[in-house]
Design goal:
globular, nine-stranded mixed beta sheet, about 350 residues, alpha/beta, about 45% helix, 13 helices, two-stranded parallel sheet
């Protein structure tokens, strides 16, 4: 990642913001997606307590690597240069996925990955870095093995991913490839008190960014164990203020201050405040699921097409997409999960500058 790449993406987001404004005022739809996500698999090799994927009896079909290549080229034909973040499940256990990262680089597509860190072996890390990723996000929920491995349901994972992060830092320097490495904790009742220590841990490990996001309701544990309840809310709010103070003092916290301050409201299950309305994900997001289905948001909104059957442009301007786009602007849910969190253009600029600082 370099200043030229960020400037190009920044211009893309600026044009998008203008198109969003026109759409909201006039209904004229010249929007184009600017935030791309690829769910390459639902299969996972860890058993996070707040996730259901590992408990599924049956998984959705997965596109082949060749199918993904066709889909990604369709997007590029529609929007030009863009960045996409791949996730799962666990994307690094999909055969051919690291090759797909390299293919993206060769075809001018900026591709990043979110991983649980279990597959960050020395051999894999060398290949990942050689693929010139746009970013690497690693899910780390606590600065201790006891808490992290409990939440992730995988004994020994913390030590394994810690070694993997060191490999990444060393290999990034050895190959001279610049990309940010971001720690992504999911905030729960079990780990929120440790978030300031996790920021310290990230800084001690090296040039790492950190981007916490709140829990969402899904698994039984998110209802009976992991949700931050009203009895803990005052303490959680104090932790958020500590994170804001650390960010202002220069800590590499990527999440915008405005989003951090909304997190207690997320656990209180409040409606989105006026400052976060109207929701714009329907004008921004292009979420490619394992089988090629396209969504703009998976919180109750239907798919808008399938990239194996239609082009990206056909999907975006389809009647289904236009209907969902209008519906999302009326949604009042306070969503702070990274892929649907409401961010202003100013937020994005600030995040981009922090990412640029964290590339080396």
């Amino acid at each position: 990642m370099n200043l030229r790449e960020l400037a190009s993406l920044g211009w893309m987001h600026t044009l998008s913001a203008l198109a969003e404004g026109v759409y909201l005022k006039t209904g004229i739809d010249s929007t184009r997606p600017v935030a791309f996500y690829g769910l390459v698999n639902e299969r996972c090799n860890v058993k996070c307590r707040y996730c259901e994927y590992w408990r599924f009896d049956k998984y959705n079909d997965e596109m082949s690597i060749a199918d993904w290549q066709k889909a990604l080229l369709s997007v590029k034909q529609f929007v030009g240069n863009y960045s996409i973040n791949f996730s799962g499940g666990e994307p690094l256990i999909k055969i051919g996925f690291i090759d797909l990262l390299g293919w993206c680089y060769d075809h001018g597509i900026k591709a990043g990955v979110t991983t649980n860190g279990s597959a960050l072996t020395q051999a894999n890390v060398k290949r990942i870095v050689a693929a010139h990723p746009f970013n690497v996000n690693i899910s780390v929920d606590a600065p201790t093995a006891e808490v992290h491995d409990y939440l992730r349901g995988s004994p020994g994972l913390f030590d394994k991913l810690s070694s993997g992060i060191r490999f990444l830092l060393e290999e990034r320097k050895a190959q001279g490839v610049e990309f940010p490495i971001t720690i992504k904790p999911t905030i729960t009742a079990r780990n929120f008190r440790l978030l300031p220590q996790l920021v310290d841990w990230a800084q001690e490990m090296g040039d790492l960014l950190i981007s916490p996001q709140p829990l969402s309701r899904w698994s039984p544990e998110t209802y009976n164990e992991l949700w931050i309840e009203s009895t803990e809310m005052a303490e959680f709010e104090e932790v958020i203020e500590t994170l804001v103070a650390m960010q202002k003092a220069g800590a590499p916290i990527l999440t915008p201050e405005s989003v951090l301050r909304l997190m207690p409201g997320s656990f209180r299950e409040e409606k989105a405040p006026r400052s976060a309305m109207p929701c714009r994900v329907g004008m921004r997001n292009f979420f490619i699921r394992t089988n090629g289905d396209i969504e703009v948001c998976n919180f109750g909104f239907p798919i808008i097409g399938n990239i194996q059957q239609q082009s990206a442009q056909q999907i975006w301007y389809s009647p289904e997409a236009k209907k969902v786009r209008a519906e999302t602007t009326q949604c009042e849910k306070l969503c702070l999960i990274t892929c649907v969190s409401q961010k202003t253009l100013g937020n994005k600029v600030g995040m981009a500058l922090r990412m640029l600082k964290g590339t080396r």
